[in-house]
Here is the input.
Amino acid sequence: MMLDTQELQAIAPRVEEIAREAGQILMGHQPRFRSVRTEFKGLRELVTAADRESEKFIVERLMLDHPEHAILAEEGVLTPQGSPSKDAEHVWILDPLDGTTNFVHGIPFYCVAICLAYRDEPVLGVIHAPALDVTFSAVRGGGAYRNGERVTVSSTAKLADAVLCTGFSYDRHEPGVEDNSARLSKILPLCRDLRRLGSAELDLCLTAAGNCDGFWEMYLQPYDVAAGALLVREAGGRVTDLEGGGDWLHGGQILASNGHLHDEVLRIIGGHPGAFSDGAS
Here is the structure.
């Protein structure tokens, strides 16, 4: 049975505490960022000891607090990598360090992201950016918050006034992979400006808080978007895949916006990954 809003709100402070403590683990590694030991999961995708230590801490706490729930964690330190630890209706989806490249280069735009989903629907999300000292949180039906203050999406109604965020896949320039440059070039002349900040979860937080007006990206995993997408929804925004449908959590593609601009952005850059010819072969 799904936890109700009141039950989720009772759990949220503990999840925020876990996220902040995991953030302190990351910050403990940060002074050594010039000599951080890194490994590659792919051609460009980094993983560090900080990722693994943060994930181990989060998973241990969640397993202790909610042994009946499953865990879906990025690095697979204590659970299967990239798949739920067991069959359960409630699954904790977590990214111990979203924005690893920023972290390694000493850029403060990175975060810990923890989401509870019920039957693939996010119902609780916490995102903590330790270097920025900012914590975002939301529960389904309870609104979205930044450091305890409620946030809402922007009221921007004209694309010409909009600032949009996007990102680029680690797998760009690989066979069959679209690199996003064609979509970017189509919408850049029509909006106020674009930002590429390096953390999908925090881009979604900025959309929820009205700092930017929308965000899109491709080739993502559930732990890249689950918590942030809930924040956007609870802040009054809209979340779909790039075809306007609902397959954004597991479909590897997402468009989040303030709602006012959503259909227009879809018309300009919408379409499944590979629909634009750039970078594909």
